[in-house]
Design brief:
One of its GO terms (molecular function) is ubiquitin-like modifier activating enzyme activity. With 442 residues, the chain is of the alpha+beta class. It contains 10 helices and 20 strands. 24% of the residues lie in helices and 26% in strands.
Length: 442
Amino acid sequence: MIKLLDFHKKTADSFQRQSEISKLYYYIVLIGAGGNGGYAVQRITKMMNAFENVRSFLLIADPDTVEEKNLHRQPFIATDIGQKKADVLAKRYGGTYGLKIGSYSDSYIESVDQLEMLFSHTDYRHERGQFIQKVLIGAVDNDFSRKVMHDYFNKTDDLIYIDAGIEGVYLPPDKSPEEWTDEEAAEHRESGYSGQVVVGLKKCGRVILPPLDAVYPINAKDAIPPSHSCGVEPYQPQRMISNEMAAMLISTVVNELFSSNAILVHYVNFNAKTGNCRPVYAEDVVGANNDSASVAAAPYDQEADSGLQSSESGQLQHDPDNAVSPSTKGEEDAKILSAEELPAEQGGVEVEVPESGVAGVREKGIKVIRIETLDEKHEKTQHGYGVPVLYHLEDGSTLRKLITGTRLKDAKARVEKLIRDPGNRWIERTENGLVIEKTSIG
């Protein structure tokens, strides 16, 4: 658990020269008022009303209007059709709970400056001993908007960035349902249930929990701004139960903030069909031996000893593909393959990582030299899709690995990024034989 107030404790050498902070004011900006965002508004406003001793403000940003098709899986009714989603939700739930909920519906948020503007209404919120804690919630369905939010995370010194994403329902292209093959029909039925919620944290200019892009890389190279994308990208519907579950998991993060001023989970993968969730806890990311007080007091250039390595830009990078928390033990996607298990042309050898004294083995593990794709079909995983790749390690051994994503295109984008630039990656085996991947980008 990361306790936010620990970062504001006054010390002799602290950069916090004002009076010690004893309370937080949560200034929440939610981008996207559709399936994920709309249901999140329901839950967050209810908590804002319930936690009477917690000061907070919610601003909803989305220029989209309510359409008839939205009534099936989004929290709108027939009389809302033609009105702005953000305005409808702000008025409805602000009125229901007696809250001042803000809305911005003039345009899509397509720049860091626009996000700065949304967070700028703070003049009358300042109080002695109170810190205005910015919370950005991304509930969008496009990588362009995610990239804008990621850039804002990089630019600002202090932010909680929560992002929710779900898998779209698979629709065979250019076919009516009557023309689908049995395999296509089966993939359609099974798709659309997986998703994830990622919590990034930056305090006092330091990245404590890496944001979305470090967990599930954002593929924004050819992304089209939402204001220009109408009719360009194929429509991919979402399942209401997945929207509801994503919103519920967002609300669990907000609930922990309101109840204890803390962050418990770094990210969670879920499957709305089974109701299964698989969290990675924040304390496992910052280091089990480091409580938030010691992390807060650490110098800026400290490198976390749990696989988070600081880059030249000061950001921390973390690759979670094989990170194992107590809740995921035994569920890792990667495994060690012997030469007999790999195709002959790959020339695989069994990877053994002794504690020391072997060429190619360093304190961090074995360095990844390059990454290539395998001539194998992608796999359907519990939380989305996986694309198999082969890691070539410094000691001459190889490691088969499954690069995952909630959508197949997300997994493929991650693979392309890794092949282009594997960065400084290290493979390490724990005492119980599990494979852990660490990164040091830069």
